[in-house]
Predict the 3D structure of the following.
Amino acid sequence: MEKETRCYDVAVIGGGPGGLPAALEAARHGARVLLAEKNGYLGGNLTIGLPLLGYLDKDGNRIVGGIAQEFADELARRGAAGPHTWCPLHNSVTIYDHEAFKIMALQRCLEAGVDLLFHTQVLQAEAEDGRLKSVVLFGKSRRIEVRARVFIDATGDGDLACMAGASYEKGEGDRRAVQPATQMCALGGVNLEQTISYLEEHPEQMELPESMAIYPGYDPAYLRANAKYHVLVGMRGIFRELRDRGELPVDRDTMIYITSLIPGRVHINCTRHLRVDGSDMLDLTRAEIEGQLQNYALVDVLRRHVPGFGGCYLERVFPFVGVRESRRFKGTARLTGEAVESGLVGADAVGLGGYIIDIHDGSGAGTVIRKVPPYGLPYGMACSAEIENLMFSGRCASMDRTALSSARVMPTLMVLAQGAGLGAALAAGRGISPGAVDTASLRAILEREQAILSPAGAAGGAGAGSPAGRA
Ligand SMILES: Cc1cc2nc3c(=O)[nH]c(=O)nc-3n(C[C@H](O)[C@H](O)[C@H](O)COP(=O)(O)OP(=O)(O)OC[C@H]3O[C@@H](n4cnc5c(N)ncnc54)[C@H](O)[C@@H]3O)c2cc1C
């Protein structure tokens, strides 16, 4: 096996919403940056058929700017994204082309001079005296020792931070009491006109349980008005009946589909894999097997029972199971559920979140949804409290479970990632730890880069039909 050593200012491990903007931002600020990714492409969960949730707050104001908005604008310019569309349930839905995203992400990284390593995973981390000295990466035929002034763990599960010995929480008491994992798939041949017409005749199929505290207006008329860009959470009557008869191959009583930019194609978010620890390869293997088989079986059931899906076919099962929650590390600040629900925006905020609290129960009991005001993402949630040159970006950042259920959406994590990447570049340039970076100067730079740092700075562009759009 070939061995080599490489030196960087900033090394980012993981190229999803937590890693990609971090690498880009650090490189744009002159840092020598490595981005190492285990897949052969960039994006992580940005490539598994999900919509972007979280650009608009509960009143329909845009609270996400910076690189996350730059991505949405660039995709729209390429005809590969719809607008941020108001939704009474999710606040907003942004539908985009996942393949176009991969290419755009790659182009942006190459333009910024980010060094890319694909098919690469972390093997080992060596920490000494509260500092991460080096990290060993491995892939086919190679073992690369990386030395960096700052390391950013953006693996989702915090694989690097865990190897470095940083402390973390997982679940609540039981490490597997985490939100369920889901294997996404894409279906072609769907006639959504028929589906919406059916729902217009059967609006009760869109009734949601009381645990989901959403705005009024999530109904067939909303789907009709936003036929191209919506997420359906419904068909509970049909799903329940099928489940009671033992004919439903998935463990849930609600169908979720997401429209796509391709006519006749929808993305399905329906499998639910309980007690999957996303940082454990055995659990992941079980979830992949269940997910692929369940999606295959589900197609037949949808064909026979869901109006508009009679001619549908399985286009693809997305390449890996989606993990909602695993390790959460200890930062110099922690985003809490209370801060989220009270809309706390501290002087150290690198941007805003505002997506609903959205907890899919770990035991399969259902989903809890609550609207929240915009809240700040404290810079310290990305800075390790224990290892001075280690940062976390993405869902492994320092948060409690309630806060994670809101801040986990991809635009919000991209906001945090831009702040983390800038902090890392400034720290590397000044020879200080990321935790010692002056947040006032950091925020001033982010503001110049169109980041939205307070609700007062929220941009226009309120979605039609949203409370702000109606005002
Ligand atoms: C089923 C499901 C539905 C969701 N729905 C939505 C939605 O509709 N809209 C929304 O905005 N958000 C949604 N989310 C939340 C969102 O997708 C995640 O919270 C978010 O993607 C987490 O970002 P991340 O960068 O931390 O992790 P990821 O997106 O998982 O990215 C991590 C990256 O690191 C790489 N990696 C992992 N381990 C290693 C390693 N050891 N070495 C090298 N590379 C590694 C991975 O390949 C990946 O590219 C959903 C999540 C799930 C699971």
